[in-house]
Specification:
Layout (H helix, E strand, L loop, with lengths): L3 E12 L2 E6 L3 H6 L10 E4 L11 E7 H29 L5 H23 L8 E7 L1
Parallel strand pairs: 3-5
Antiparallel strand pairs: 1-2, 1-4, 2-3, 4-5
Length: 137
């Protein structure tokens, strides 16, 4: 069984091969803290299965395991690299500095990398990794 995350919602608009969906509020929304739909309350999902979608239909959307893995890596990797890079840079560039100083620079770059990547990822993508998987009747 492949890992994936599913949500349900109503179609509000259809844009070519993509559907704009208002997600149902539930446990899944609390779990991801509405990261995708906070921008306007909607999720954009691709209709990769060419389902006969209509405005107002209730559908199920999902993100497959590869998409979840990619989202996890892009959320975790920038802070780790920011801290590690800041710490190592300080220890190499300023060898007389203490470990506390290197750690403080690492923490500053951790936050800078996290904030920078957050600003980049706030730009809406074409589909956000979601796919419409079925129509709920």
């Amino acid at each position: 069984m492949k890992a994936h995350m599913t949500e349900t919602g109503k179609i509000r608009e259809i844009r070519g091969n993509f559907a704009v969906i208002e997600a149902d509020k539930g446990a899944a929304c609390f779990g991801c803290m509405n990261v995708e739909c906070k921008k306007g309350g909607f999720i954009t999902a691709e209709n990769a299965l060419a389902l006969p979608l209509k405005k107002g239909q209730k559908v199920e959307v999902s993100v497959k395991g590869a998409g979840l893995f990619r989202q996890t890596i892009t959320a975790i990797l920038p802070p780790i690299l920011g801290f590690t890079g800041g710490y190592i840079f300080t220890r190499i560039a300023f060898p007389a500095s203490s470990q506390n100083t290197a750690a403080m620079v690492g923490i500053a770059l951790l936050f800078a990398a996290s904030f920078g990547f957050y600003k980049i990822k706030r730009r809406p993508s074409a589909a956000g990794g979601y796919t419409v998987t079925r129509i709920i009747k």
